[in-house]
């Protein structure tokens, strides 16, 4: 099931996406969900065309835990070794935007990069999750773009500003709850030109590895997001560019880059 979060007439709700097509092409409708999707819910039967609503970030995470250098070719393209243990960092909730929202080019950077990633959405409170229970705590999957101020990342020891600035975490367009994430095509295009093309099967650490590793240290809450790393091919974004992240079985997350302010 594809579950979107949206606003219409000033109201915010979740809905199940039905029909065939894309956000741009039309043909999709939303069956409004009664309540929130992390618990048992019912479909209301009230349907609205997706073209009549504004898509919002599909979740409002308490935290986004991101994993760096989880694809060997990406680590190599930036001159880095594959880490012995997963490299984790946070992106704040203020960095999260939805599909169709603008990425604001930060004033402290002259080198903004796209990073297409599979995002894991957590569905229940969990801590110290054993490997065999990981599927039980995952709500679903969505597309993400770990937008990075590469020059700031290289000159600052911490990545907080480089990867945590406002609008640096596009998520969407919705969450797919019924998906095998082990071998999916993941790609990024800029102005229609392909930049990144990889498969989730190339991850160094699997989703199970990452959930176990993260929950050894912290409690994850419903709606929290794990970014699983990016394949090779990251590259520059400029004001006016349109960047799209497409993941097999999920859909396409599209954002335009604008000048901040």
TrEMBL record:
Keywords: Hydrolase, Metal-binding. GO terms for molecular function: hydrolase activity. Its EC number is 3.7.-.-. Residues 1-58 form the Rv2993c-like N-terminal domain. Residues 63-257 form the Fumarylacetoacetase-like C-terminal domain. This is Fumarylacetoacetate hydrolase family protein.
């Amino acid at each position: 099931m594809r579950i979107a979060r949206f606003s219409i007439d000033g109201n915010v709700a979740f809905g199940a996406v039905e029909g065939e097509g894309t956000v741009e092409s039309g043909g999709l409708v939303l069956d409004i969900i009664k309540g929130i999707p992390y618990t048992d819910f019912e479909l209301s039967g009230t349907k609205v065309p997706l073209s009549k609503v504004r898509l919002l970030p599909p979740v409002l995470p308490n935290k986004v835990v991101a994993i760096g250098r989880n694809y060997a070719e990406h680590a190599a393209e930036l001159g880095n070794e594959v880490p012995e243990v997963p490299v984790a960092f946070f992106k704040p909730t203020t960095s999260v935007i939805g599909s169709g929202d603008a990425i604001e080019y930060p004033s402290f950077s002259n080198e903004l990069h796209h990073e297409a990633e599979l995002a894991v959405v957590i569905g229940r409170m969990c801590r110290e999750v054993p490997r065999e229970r990981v599927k039980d705590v995952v709500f679903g999957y969505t597309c993400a773009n770990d937008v990075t101020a590469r020059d700031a990342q290289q000159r600052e020891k911490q990545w907080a500003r480089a990867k945590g600035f406002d609008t640096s975490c596009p998520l969407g367009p919705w969450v797919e709850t019924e998906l095998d994430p082990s071998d999916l095509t993941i790609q990024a295009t800029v102005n229609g030109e392909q930049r990144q093309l990889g498969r989730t099967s190339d991850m160094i650490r699997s989703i199970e590895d990452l959930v176990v590793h993260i929950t050894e240290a912290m409690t994850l809450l419903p709606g929290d997001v794990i970014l699983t790393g990016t394949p090779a091919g990251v590259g520059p974004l400029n004001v006016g560019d349109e960047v799209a992240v497409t993941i097999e079985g999920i859909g396409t997350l599209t954002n335009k880059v604008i000048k901040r302010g």
